[in-house]
Amino acid sequence: MMAAGDVLGSWAFYAGWAFMIAGCGFFATAALGLLRFPDLYSRLHAVTKTDTLGLGLLTLGLALLDPSWRSCLMLLLIWLLVMASGAVNCQLLARYNLEQEEEDNHRVS
Amino acid sequence: MNTLPLVTAIELYLTLGIAVFLLSLHGLMTLHDPIRRLIAVNLMGAGTFLVMVSLARRSEVPDPVLHALVVTGLVVAISATAFALRLIIAATKADRRGGKPEP
Amino acid sequence: MSPELLPDLTLILLLLIMAWGALYAPQRSDAMTLFIAFGVVVALIWARLDAPDLALAEAAIGAGLTGVLLMHAARALPDELHRRNRTATYWGALAFAVVATLMFLAHLLTDDSLLNAGLLDGETDMTPRLRSLADATMGDSGVEHPVTAVLLNFRAWDTLLELLVLLFALSGLRQLFPRESAPDDHATSRWPESLALMAAWARVLAPLLVVTGGYLLWRGSSAPGGAFQAGSLLAAAAVMLRLTGLLPPLRWSSVWLRLAVVAGALFFLTVAAITGIWGEGWLTYPAAYSGLLIISIEIFATLSIAITLSLLVIGEWEDLRS
Amino acid sequence: MIWLASLILLTALAGIWRMTHAATIADRLLGLQVLSTTGIAFLLLLAQWQSNAVWRDVALVLALLAAVITVALVQMLRKRS
User: Fold this and answer.
1) Whole-complex ipTM
2) Architecture of domain B6-97
3) What pTM does this model have?
C-alpha cells in the first residue's frame, strides 16, 4: 500500500476510505428509498443508484486501497457488469410491470 | 485481524445450521403444497451443509474432504430436486386426467 | 462481544428470515423468490466460513439454477394445491425450532463430553486426520488445489458417482414424459416472444458466462473452481439462451447430444478401466500422466455436467423425447 | 472495514423487507436484485479485508448469475396464457 512513497500512499489510503464510505452511504440511501418510496418505479430509481454509483464508489475506493492491476481489472469488470445488469433489469422489471398492469386492466374492463 | 474469532463464530453457524434444519423439518411435516415441501427438503439439506462446513472450519485450514463432500451433496440435491419436480407435475397431470383428486 | 461478530450475526438473521419466508410465505411465488435469496445468503455464509469452492458452487446452483428450476416447474402446476396454513402452524414451527435449538445448545454447553471429545476444538477427532492425510499425499495427486485433488483423485469414485447421479436423474426424467406428445404439452413449453432488450442482453451475457466458466475450469487445478462450478455456469448460459429463444430445442434424437451427456462418465470409466487393467489399480493414476488425465477428465465432466444440468432445468418434451 | 460490511448487510435487510412485504412480483425481483448487489459489495469488501482474491471471483459469479436469473424469471413469469 505504501509502495509508491509515503505521501502518495497515505493520500490513496485516505481517498480510498473516503470513497468507500461514500459508496456505503449510497447503499444506505437505497435502503431508505426501498423502504419509503411509494411505488415500484421510484423504487427502481433508488435501487439503480446503488448499482451504478454506490458500487462504483466502493470499487473505486477498493481499487485505491489495493492498486495491483489484476484486482483493479476484476473490480472494473464486476462494476461494469453490475451496472449494465442493473440498467437492463430496471428496464425489464418496469416493462414487465407495465405488461402485467395492462393485462389486469384488460381483464377488469 | 484477518481471521474469524474461531470458536464463537463457528458455534454460531453450527447452531444456525441446526436451527434451519429443525425449522424446515417442521415445515416438511406441516406444509401441504408439494413445491413448498420440496423447498423444505432443500432447506434441510442446506442446514446439514452448514453444520458440515462449520465443522470443517474448526481447524486453521478448512478441511477439504468435507468441502468436497458438500459439493457432491449440492449435485445430488439439484438432481433430486429436478426429478421430484417432474414427479409432482406428472402426478398432478394424472390427477387432472382421470384419477380422483387428493382429499 | 467483539465487533467481529457483527456481520456474522447479520448474516444469521438474514438466513433465518429467508428460511422462514421460503417455508411460510403466503404465496408460492414469494416462497420461491425467497428460496433463491436464501441461496445468495448461503453463498455469503460459505464465504464467511472460508469455503470458496462452495461459495462458487452455491452462487451458481443455489442462487441461480435451482430457482429457475422451481419457477419452470411451477408454471406447469395449478396455482396452489392446498391452502391450509393456519397461524397455529407458524407458532408451532417457531416454538419447535427454538426449543429444539436451545436444547441442543444446552447440551453443547453443559455436557463436557462433547467438548472433551474435541468436537469444537478441532484437530483431535477423525476428520482433521483425514485432511492431514490428504495434505500429506497431495504432492502425488497431480494438481495443487486440495478440494479438486480430493474430488478427482482421492475420492475419484465419488466424482464418478456424482456424474452417474446426474445421468440417472436425467434418465428418470425422460421416463416421466409420454412417448407421444400430448397437445397441451406444447402449450406449456412455448415461451412468450422475448423483448428485444432481453435478447440483446442475453447475447452479451452468454459469452461472459462461457468465458468465466472456462476460467473457473482452467484455474480449478491450482485454486478454487473446477468442473462442477464451470459446468453450472455453462448450463446457466444455455438455460438463458433457451428461454430467450436464441437456442433451438436440444433434441434428444441428436447423437451428439447423447454423446455429450454421457461423455464425462464414459471417459472417466474408460480411464478407470485402463488404469485397472494395465495400471496399478482402479483409478490409481500413473504419476507421470496424473495432471493431464485429471484435466481431461475435468473437461469432459464439465461438458456433461453443463448439458445434463440444462436438460434437467428446462428440459421439455421436445428436448427429451423427440 | 467490518463496520462497512455490516452496514452493507443491513441494507440487505431492507431488501428482504421489500421482498416479504411486496405488492407485486416485480417488487420481489427488485428486492432480490438489491440483495445480490449487497452480496457482491460484501464479497468485494471481504476480499480486501482478508486479502484473498478468490472472493472477487465469487462476486463475479454472483453478479453473472444475478443477471441471468432476473432475465430468466421475468421471461418465465410473463403472460402465462
Assistant:
1) 0.88
2) Orthogonal Bundle (1.10)
3) 0.85
